[in-house]
Amino acid sequence: MSVLSEFELIERYFRHHGQSRRDVQLAQGDDCAVVKTTPGTEIAVTTDTMVAGVHFDDKVPARALGHKLVAVNLSDLAAMGAEPAWLSLAITLPKADHTWLSEFSAGMHELAGYYHCQLIGGDTTRGPLTLTLTAQGLLPEGQTLVRHGAKPGDWIFVSGTLGDAAAALAAQRDDLEISSAGQKKLEERLFYPTPRVSLGQALRGMATSCIDVSDGLAADLQHILKRSEVGGRLFLTQLPYSDTLNTLSLEQKRHYALHGGDDYELCFTIPEEMRGSLETALTHSGVDITCIGQIDRQPGLRFFDGDNEVTASGLGYQHFGMATL
Ligand code: ADP
Ligand code: MG
């Protein structure tokens, strides 16, 4: 291990190397970063932490960690309809491992650069590996997507496909038997999730509520229902699965889709009269969406297989005990 000073380490790995954002006045190098704001713009702020041995293990490549740290934060911004702008990284490292650092920072910069968002500062300390990222995003005034606006009659939608990441984790733990090619595909979703950034922005002024699916669809949709003081019906036959998940049994697929985690898709509600404009608005977002249910007044989330209501125990529900808090 070469003896890089903390300053050199930051300079080498945690300074933005591409074209800087014009709204960044000062980035790394001073006691604070300074950014410019625009009248009529609000700022959404979110933080996520990943702790070694709790949120990830040695099986996760360093590049994937960098990608995922940015992705989970951008997914929170997407759920609010915000446009990603600035990132701050608090990193605690057991040692300066340069292979690890260059892979990790490449994973971060790659995804951040794709969304034109800039790492503007942070903190570097020695200790057990812990990664904390704060992301800030821009929102036109009054257009924030929230969890509390769903109304009876609204349709419930979800983006992409569900359950892949949870199935990948199960395969790694030998709880699920799948071909090694299948496992690889699922791990792609677990390691390199795609934050639905342009979808979130396209939903401004259209969705009555929105959340990102990080703890499993059932749990996250229930946050919308509780905050909106409504209930909902979920159409089990409509749940969207990847080709890989479709090779599993119906019971397994439903289980991972409903109660898994780490999907980072968006779940949102759309009033009937907006359904037409939704199709048009989404032509550029590059992601498929699926209608999976409807909001009503009867409290709680109820599951339907065709016309038949299915109880949670009928779905083989067991808690995953995942490391998300
Ligand atoms: P201070 O002691 O004043 O907090 P530091 O010496 O910790 O400042 O950091 C020096 C500069 O480098 C600051 O501008 C800080 O924002 C930036 N910085 C430190 N660690 C990181 C990091 N992991 N990623 C990005 N910027 C960082
Ligand atoms: Mg200082």
What amount of the residues lies in strands?
A: 25-35%
Fill in the CATH topology of the largest domain.
Answer: Phosphoribosyl-aminoimidazole Synthetase, Chain A, domain 2
Radius of gyration, CA atoms, in whole angstroms: 20 Å
Q: What is the average of the pLDDT values?
A: 93
Say how many strands there are.
13
- Low-confidence segments, given as residue ranges, are 317-325
Instruction: Trace the largest sheet across and list its strands.
Output: 8-10-7-11-9-12-13
Distance between the termini: 35 Å
* Overall 3D form: globular
- Assembly state here? single chain
Describe it for me?
The chain is α+β, with helices and mostly antiparallel strands and 325 residues long. It contains nine helices and 13 strands. The protein has helices at residues 6-13, 62-79, 98-114, 164-172, 180-191, 197-202, 217-228, 250-259, 275-281, and strands spanning 24-26, 34-35, 41-51, 83-93, 118-126, 130-140, 155-159, 209-213, 231-235, 265-270, 289-296, 300-305, 308-310. The strands form three sheets. It has a seven-stranded mixed β-sheet. Strands 3-6-4-5 form a four-stranded mixed β-sheet. Strands 1-2 form a two-stranded antiparallel sheet. The longest helix has 18 residues, at 62-79. Mean pLDDT is 93; it is low at 317-325. Bound molecules: adenosine-5'-diphosphate and magnesium ion. The site of adenosine-5'-diphosphate (ADP) has 13 residues, from β4 and β5. Substrate binds at residues 55, 262, 317. Mg(2+) 5 binds at residue 215. Residues 29-138 form the PurM-like N-terminal domain.
